[in-house]
Amino acid sequence: MASKDKSSKDKNPDESTSEVQAADVVLDTAGGMLEPSLVPVSSQSGDTGHRQGSLLRRIVMGNGFVSVLAVIVALFLGGLLIASTDGDVAETSSYLFARPTDFLLATWEAMTESYVALFQGSVFNPRQGFQPLLETLTVATPLICAGLGVALAFRAGLFNIGAQGQIIISATLAAYVGFTWHLPFGLHLLLVIVMGVLGGAAWGAIVGILKARTGAHEVIVTIMLNYVALFLLDFLLNTAAFRRPGDNSPISPRLDETATYPVLIPGSRLHLGFLVAVLLTYGVWWMLNRSTIGFEFRAVGANLVAARTAGVKVPRATILVMAFAGALAAFGGVAQVAGTEKVLTGGVAAQIGFDAITVALLGRSTPWGTFFAGLLFGAFRAGAVQMQIQTGTPIDIVLVVQSLIVLFIAAPPLIRSIFRLEPKKKSKTPKVAPQAAVANATGGAK
Amino acid sequence: MSATSTAPKAGAGAPAPTAALRPSLKVPISLSVLSLVALVFFGLLGPGKTAEMKISDPGDAVEVPALMIPGQVGGMVLAILLFAMAAYAIYLWTRGERSPKWLPIVFAVVFVFALLVWIVAGARQPSISLAGLVAGSVTLAVPLVFGSLSGVLCERVGVVNIAIEGQLLGGAFTAALVATVTGSPYVGLIAAAAAGAAVSMVLAVFSIKYLVNQIIVGVVLNVLVSGLTGFLFGTVMVPNKAQFNTPGRLDILPIPFLSDIPIIGPILFEQSIAGYLMYVAVAVVWFGLFKTRWGLRVRAVGEHPQAADTLGINVNATRFWNVTLGGAIAGIGGAVFTLVTIDSFTKEISGGRGFIALAALIFGRWNPIGAFLASLLFGFAYNLQSILGIIGTPVPSQFMAMLPYLVTIFAVAGLVGRSRPPAASGIPYVKG
Asked: CATH topology for B134-415?
């Protein structure tokens, strides 16, 4: 596919330098190198027009720029929502036509007040300096890990909605090892990580095995396993083995000091788990782009029939990719109990597993894209707490903004039409035609 | 070349087609395993107490004596009955025949009954009102039925609807808001349908016009609706509950005389308008899909859009309006939360029922009646879970809560086998 793209480009007479082409390819696949991943297939939405034209237009049309615009539009719409329920705005709207400036001013204030609070809670404020940024990184750590798990499965054409369950299972196992076994520093933490990751991998592998052996749809199985994990944790937290001695509330003892990630910067909650997440991001990038198994995963995701014909063992790939996805999400669960929370509660996974899906989508299923998307959503999560305290804006606004971002990014034509960035149709049509024909031919061959 | 090579193949491979046609062993094996579980747990290890199952409440027009079932003996008898059915499935398999459709359903009913006897006889207070249990199950199943019908309509036309949860939640919120503001729950019900349709239209526009992956849009829509309703609940409803969140309830409209029949009276003839609508919707969707020209077109679009397009059916328009209709139905289901079950909206009131509806639709094999029966089963599980807490059982409530989800996994993987969705489900259609 990629080679076809390139060859068709080379034939274009008004195509500029090959450097720009390379930049374009990197933009499109962002480290994917070979093939736009499964998710970008949908997000490209049949629009290949942005590959042509001047350098400026190319930058403007590039997916990176669209992503930034999507974030801006989503934040703006979220701001309108905040303003629409604001008391001052409602008051000034009653005399909108007499003094429209009052209304606009009130709207602007309602929007900025919330977002300034969000920024102060997530990046910088005069009182604490950059302390909030460290909190953002802490919150982002499990999001990145789980997001990588979701993204990896996406690349193999599987929808891993089950990060939530994988996090719960791994957190449970990791915490159990953390507070019942008493081992020296280093070994203890290692065992906590290993047990947690094995648990998550097993929970993910169940899905892969069922999919490979019986054809059970992974979306259904992962959703169901999320609930099973949730109730299992609820049950365990009500048993003597998991409860604090002499306490009836469903909360585990604190993990041993030897079982937790060391804090990186004193005075914050930022722990070693963040560096682990960075390493994992690199590891997933390496696996997808440099290893045989990663190539097989992508082949299965891009075209299952072709992959099977080429000798990829699809059932094996399915099971493996789900186990890896579960293991990655499990690192998020370990980061929660061994890093951030240090205890096991019923809400240990919060909404991380579900946020991870939007993180992976925003990151276009590429490892580094997921990493930065995780940072962004970590900032939203960390800042929203501060925002709710300062301005009373409910935390749910974060969900609205997150989902709007993903919707806009998923449909670039929508963003382009909002900003009138459409490429000139007349010059575009003949160039696109051959590519469309190629796509049709391959579609027909199936 | 092809003629010569195919002839010997056909001769040599003669037994192959029959082997391929031989039905899968999954049903006989699953039934046998479950029968064994029933025999061991419900029969041999069954509780000694006698389970009392009240069929009518004292003071009903028709009084029926309660069923008294001794735990262990009852469990044995039911297990033997289950074994008989498993044996029948095996017998059919040896003759190369498929098990009839009714067999797993009857098996499931008997198995659930055996489970019930086991649980009730083992409880601290071994008595349960069967009528109340069944009526409660149907009440809890109503939103599930609407939700799964929405899923059936969408998937049959080739659009995967993961957004059922969002449609239910949107319907629930809008119903509460509009019913309070207008003072009429009936207006709220209509508004809920409109809200569900609106959520669905977003799904339709993104998946049909912008060709975005349907599962992604569904997942994101769920988050969006959850965020929107949560935000508006916090900023609008919480500060002014009386003004915005006191919708009142839909009246229960009993049909005289018929509603006095034990067990089936309350579930069929003593419902709110939404409950009656549910039965009508199941019947209409089934009839529409399988007996009308419209249904044939819908299924054609879901199975082979190219063929449908060739015959002059507007594929994308058919998809768009079906998805919208599905959303409206799910929206009505959402209204049940705030206008029937309780009379106010709370955050996340749908609590994952949309996903259970999705499971019911798959369990019911993309068929309206199957989805209806599966929804009833899940409604029963929900209800059982809350009743168990009251009568006190040795089984931890969390495991009962897990049951519908485990059953679904089991069904998707085992009993249902390779569940076959409509062929074009999830695949956008690009003309040309």
From this structure: ABC transporter involved in vitamin B12 uptake, BtuC (1.10.3470)
